[in-house]
Amino acid sequence: MRVGAWRWLWLCLVCLPLAAQESDPALELADLIGGKAQYQQLSHQVLGEMIRKQPAMARYQGVVQRWAKEYLTWERMRAELAQSYHSHFSGPEIRDMVLFFRTPSGQKYVRYTPLLREEMIRIGQRLAREQQPRLIQMLRDAGAKVEVQQATRPPVSSQ
């Protein structure tokens, strides 16, 4: 009888937290937003950049890749992302996002997010360039000495 109680206690202490973790909607959210594919791509880019910045590491590329495979795992990242989601969103908000990202519209949003980010950057840069004369005038009005550098444009060909 006593052994059965210890088994039950062990089951509660070890298995239930694991089951609760797997039912955590924040973990599903990490999966739904394409986190695994993005993380693998980013890890590959970071490792490549690390080797490019430190050419002596090139001969140890296999070691670095084994290290990354063992320690920079999606499972670890996924658990930390879930914690991050919980620190910024309530349980109901996370469940709402899971419901959205399960839909075709949510998955389309995930696919277009990188493109939308790039477009936002380009739009912001264009707006800043267009409004630069106003910034220069505002700085001058505030007493700053501003030198305007003319953008160099390629010569127009006369064909």
SSE diagram, text form:
Elements lengths: L1 H21 L2 H8 L2 H19 L7 H11 L2 H15 L2 H12 L1 H38 L18
Helix pairs in contact: 2-5, 2-6
The helix content, as a percent range, equals: over 70%
Structural class: mainly alpha
Q: What average pLDDT do the residues reach? A: 82
Please indicate the percent range of residues in DSSP E strands (runs of 2 or more). Answer: under 5%
Spatial extent as radius of gyration:
26 Å
Order of helices and strands: HHHHHHH
Low-confidence stretches: 8-21
Number of strands: 0
Tell me, briefly, the overall form.
flat
Total count of helical runs of at least 4 residues: 7
Overview of this protein structure:
This protein has 159 residues and is mainly α. Helices cover 78% and strands 0% of the residues. The protein has helices at 2-22, 25-32, 35-53, 61-71, 74-88, 91-102, 104-141. Helix 2 runs parallel beside helix 6 (91-102). The longest helix is centred in the C-terminal third of the chain and has 38 residues, at 104-141. The N and C termini lie far apart (98 Å).
